[in-house]
Amino acid sequence: MIKKNNLVTQFKQHPKYGAVLNLGKMISITGGAQIIVQALGFASGILIIRLLPVEEYGLYTLANTLMGAMMVLGDGGLSTGVMSQGAKVWQNKEKLGAVLATGLDLRRKFAIVSLTIFIPILIYLLIHNNASWLTSILISISLIPGFYAALSDCLIEMVPKLHQDIIPLQKNQISVGIFRLIIIGLTMFIFPWAFIAVLANGIPRIFGNIKLQKIADKFIDKTTKPDPVIQKEIIKIVQRILPGSIYFCLSGQITIWVISIFGTTVGVAQLGALGRFAMLLNIFTVLINTLIIPRFARLELRKKVLLKASFYTISIVVTISVLLLLFVSIFSNQLLLILGNSYKDLKNEMLLSVLIGCINLGSTIFSYLSLSRGWVINPILMIIFNLFGSIFPFFFVDVSTLNGVLMLSLFSALCGFLLNGSYIFFKILRLVK
């Protein structure tokens, strides 16, 4: 008993005991909150899948896909630039406020450009998939509130993340999820239309955005104005990232683009429904992006330290992926019942969709690690590599079918994983000891 007490005492006196204990608390809080957030999001998504007619859900999936592309171009590397600049001055309220103000000012300009480009494309694709002009316009307008709020979220979240003020951040995300579920539950039974579902997703983000700003305000000087010097530094990062962002506007959701052009609205709906299970990986993406990436950004520029952190992070991703794939394989029939009878025969396609999601999770985390240090892959190399991953499978698969489009996506995901993984370790290994 005495020996056991001595071991406990020695453990508590270890120099890293406090840091490990604090990290454990943060993981449990953030992980628990993210399970709730993603569960609410999943429930909202299932409600929409089951209550919208298949054709309407196909249009809803198209709208969400275009919003993802709009987000990529509307950000254009801004969030990376703001995080990179904010990490340098995160303990100075005035300077951190100037970084955020500069980012938000640039965000407004980028958002206008993104809307101007993508709204006409969205309207064309909706009409191509048998939507009326009125429906297409209503869906396009319904996207705008959620789009603006989501772009601001990406920048404002940087402040509490750098200060690891996680609990208020999680509470805000949970309240947004609850609000969204309530609105969808109240509207979808009465108005089973795609544009109502899009609007029901966007409105809660506006209220969440207002609360998020209040959370960030205690760490910044709200009176600061955009700084031309900071803007210049952010633009430098944007210039390196933007070409790749433009490319990924087209390639990031290539499966939806392809099946919406060569396939049918039903195929779009099936692909969107299966994607709901892969979206459960967002729990881990947010968890890692909230707790690990900011800490990685603040690490000393030392080869051994960064290598250790990178291996630790990707080992977590691999473990999560294996466990999730086993779960989906064992309970595939039960999971498909959740989606409804229209999707019950998609067992193999569901497993393939989740596998693609796991590979994309690893690729995304590799990318986050690189960008948090300001390391940006040469856009030309990125585009060439990903074009090969997107075009080569066209010669071997039938892209008018759901299975063919998923195989195309799998090959593309593998290429992205190899590129991003190789780059982060290449940059670390090049560091002088």
Automatic annotation (TrEMBL):
Keywords: Cell membrane, Membrane, Transmembrane, Transmembrane helix. The chain crosses the membrane at residues 35-52, 58-78, 110-127, 133-156, 177-200, 277-297, 309-330, 350-369, 376-396, 402-426. The keyword Coiled coil does not apply. It is a multi-pass membrane protein. GO terms for cellular component: plasma membrane. It is found in: Cell membrane. The keyword Transmembrane helix applies. Its main location: membrane. This is Polysaccharide biosynthesis protein. It comes from Flavobacterium agrisoli.
